[in-house]
Specification:
It comes from Populus trichocarpa (Western balsam poplar). GO terms for molecular function: agmatine deiminase activity; protein-arginine deiminase activity. This is Agmatine deiminase. It holds the Pfam family PAD_porph. There is one protein chain. This protein has 385 residues and is an alpha/beta fold. It has a single domain (13-384), classed as 5-stranded Propeller (L-arginine/glycine Amidinotransferase, Chain A), CATH 3.75.10. The chain is built from eleven helices and 16 strands. It has a four-stranded mixed beta sheet with strand order 3-2-1-16. A three-stranded mixed beta sheet has the order 4-5-6, with helices on both faces. A hairpin with a 4-residue loop joins strand 7 and strand 8. The longest helix has 15 residues, at 46-60. It starts with 26 loop residues before the first strand and ends in an 8-residue tail after the last strand. The mean pLDDT is 95.
Length: 385
């Protein structure tokens, strides 16, 4: 007998005692997609697939990995990925699982809210291709809309659908009541024009189980595809400590953005009243798309153009925290690549920092390692967290 999916409507996750855990809390697995769009990934995604494989292998040394590939690409993905990486067939418009996958929430031991027995659940946000028909990255996102639901169903978890348009890369939590986001993205008129800042904040609190939202005005300079996602700009290292994308070059447009963020972060506290410690993580470059790279993309009008000379939204903040590992992009800028590894090693002394060479291939299409991954938390008791 086929089991019906468990859909929870009319009640937010927090009502049932769920909250979004920090990314450094234990995972049961990582979810990824498989790139193939020729109008976004150059040379039919040949180079990107090699880097996605590197990322999947790196993460799989720390925790299980599931990669989802379309029917046309399943055999190709299966042949490139090692056997211990699970490969599932799934339709999608593109492979940004941070944004189109579910946001998982957990309920720890001792929480007796609501009537759901499962310790893990998934939020199925609404999605409009990062801005809709006029301002998004491509025209059709109908397959992406189903990815979160399919993943939650595969894991047989309760699903909390939400009307609000939100991508996973636009939020970051400390697991202790605080959420980071940007006004540039969440308040953009191409997402939820009928919601006020206060209404959006109320939804974040109800669905993520947080008590305070810290709003930065902007994301990373050049991150136009996502309208300034937080995961390129700033993230928590642990409660009370954040990493901030930084540059000392006052002529770089990123400088003003970093300074404004520094001012806000320096003059606020988290949900528990902690003053924030800020660790600066220098951006690479600046880096720009070459003529050769742009020529490899099919510019047929179905996706946002990839033009030569475009500044790439490259950031070392866009790393992934695995169970005991930090999977970090490397852009071929040796000075800042090495500096990023040093800073991340100090910020996460109990994690092994793993370099992913060639991560430029991901940023060419508008994101990086954090953008292509989605962690599924493990169900642990309060005493084990």
């Amino acid at each position: 007998m086929q089991q019906r999916e468990m859909v929870v409507t009319g009640e937010a996750p927090a009502v049932h005692g769920y909250s979004m855990p920090a990314e450094w809390e234990p995972h049961s697995q990582t979810w990824m997609g498989w790139p193939e769009r020729p109008d976004n990934w150059r040379d039919n995604a040949l180079h990107a697939q090699l880097v996605f494989t590197k990322v999947a292998i790196a993460i799989s040394k720390f925790e299980p990995v599931t990669v989802c590939a379309s029917s046309a690409q399943w055999e190709n993905a299966r042949s490139q990925l090692p056997e211990h990486v699970r490969v599932l067939e799934m339709s999608m418009n593109d492979s940004w699982f941070r944004d189109i996958g579910p946001t998982f929430v957990v309920r720890k031991n001792g929480s007796n809210h609501g009537n759901l027995e499962q310790r893990i659940a998934g939020i199925d946000w609404n999605f409009n291709g990062w801005g809709g028909v006029d301002d998004g990255c491509y025209q059709d996102w109908s397959l992406d809309l189903l990815v979160a639901r399919k993943i939650i169903g595969t894991e047989k978890l309760p699903r909390f659908p939400h009307f609000m348009i939100l991508e996973g890369g636009s939020i970051h939590v400390d697991g202790d009541g605080t959420c980071l986001t940007t006004e540039e993205c969440l308040l953009n008129k191409n997402r939820n024009p009928n919601l006020t800042k206060e209404q959006i904040e109320d939804q974040l609190k109800a669905y993520l189980g947080v008590q305070k939202v810290i709003w930065l005005p902007y994301g990373l300079y050049g991150d136009d595809d996502t309208n300034g996602h937080i995961d390129n700009m700033c993230c928590f290292v642990r409660p009370g400590v954040v990493l901030l994308s930084w540059t000392e070059d006052e002529k770089d447009p990123q400088f003003k953005r970093s300074m404004e963020a520094l001012s806000i972060l320096s003059n606020t506290s988290d949900a528990n009243g902690r003053r924030l410690e800020i660790i600066k993580l220098h951006v690479p470059g600046p880096l720009y798309m070459t003529d050769e790279e742009a020529a490899g993309v099919v510019q047929d009008g179905n996706a946002k153009p990839r033009l030569p000379g475009t500044r790439l939204a490259a950031s070392y903040v866009n790393f992934y925290i695995a169970n005991g590992g930090i999977i970090t992009p490397q852009f071929g800028d040796q000075k800042w690549d090495d500096e990023a590894v040093r800073v991340l090693s100090q910020a996460f002394p109990n994690h092994e920092v793993v370099r992913i060479e060639g991560a430029r291939e991901i940023v060419l299409a508008g994101g990086n390692i954090h953008c292509i991954t989605q962690q599924q938390p493990a169900a642990l008791s309060t005493s084990n967290c």
